[in-house]
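Field log, afternoon session.

UNIT: design team B
ACTIVITY: writing a sequence onto a fixed backbone
BACKBONE:
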């Protein structure tokens, strides 16, 4: 079961951009709440409080949103708009949830365990999918879905979407049996390339020294020739 997460908000009547900028300057993020059968509600939220909650909830957890100290409503974060330069959150869309109706959302994968093929044969884990779209009642939402890597014992082993045991009440939206995780064999050539990449900064520094030394010698020889 997903954790309970609370977030405080205040209503705002301002809709023009100048007042939205003022809110941001005061440490608030403008936001809107929408959903079936309700009128849109304009609110504002403390930037630091939203950042804390977003780290916990992401876009797959229910949030108890308390507006002006009133009774909380259940929402999920539907969209987050960020400043293209600074990366700060500048607007949030919340979707109000009807707890009796199924919703569709993305649930992230949590990769656990150790793949024997990696430990014994030196393979490399390839993650093809890191989240999945599901449908469920809001009360059945979870933080994540575990993917057990210990099932990967050979290079031929794969984990498909259909191999995943879904939490109770949750079904896959997509029926495509995508590969979630596979294992690539690390050839000797790839291993060498990887080793070179790891020591590249050190080698690059030495090359620079060698080039500089060669350049100095070239200049010296040029001067001697002119004499």
């Amino acid at each position: 079961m997903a954790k309970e997460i609370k977030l405080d908000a205040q209503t705002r009547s301002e809709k023009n951009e100048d007042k939205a900028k003022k809110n941001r300057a005061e440490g608030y993020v403008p936001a809107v709440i929408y959903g079936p059968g309700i009128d849109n509600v304009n609110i504002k939220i403390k930037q630091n409080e939203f950042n804390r909650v977003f780290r916990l909830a992401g876009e797959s957890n229910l949030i108890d949103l308390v507006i002006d100290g009133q009774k909380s409503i259940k929402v999920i974060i539907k969209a987050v708009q960020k400043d293209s330069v600074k990366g700060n959150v500048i607007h949030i869309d919340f979707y109000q949830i009807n707890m009796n109706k199924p919703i569709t959302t993305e649930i992230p994968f949590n990769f656990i365990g150790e793949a024997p093929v990696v430990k014994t044969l030196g393979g490399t884990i390839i993650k093809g999918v890191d989240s999945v779209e599901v449908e469920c009642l809001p009360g059945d939402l979870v933080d994540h879905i575990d993917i057990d890597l210990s099932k990967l014992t050979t290079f031929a082993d794969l984990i498909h979407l259909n191999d995943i045991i879904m939490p109770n009440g949750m079904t896959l939206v997509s029926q495509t049996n995508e590969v979630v995780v596979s294992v690539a064999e690390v050839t000797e050539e790839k291993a060498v390339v990887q080793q070179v990449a790891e020591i590249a900064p050190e080698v690059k520094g030495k090359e620079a020294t060698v080039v500089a030394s060669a350049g100095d010698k070239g200049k010296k020889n040029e001067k001697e020739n002119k004499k």
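LOG NOTE: Confidence is low (pLDDT under 50) at residues 191-196, 206-214.
NEXT ACTIVITY: expression trials, pending approval
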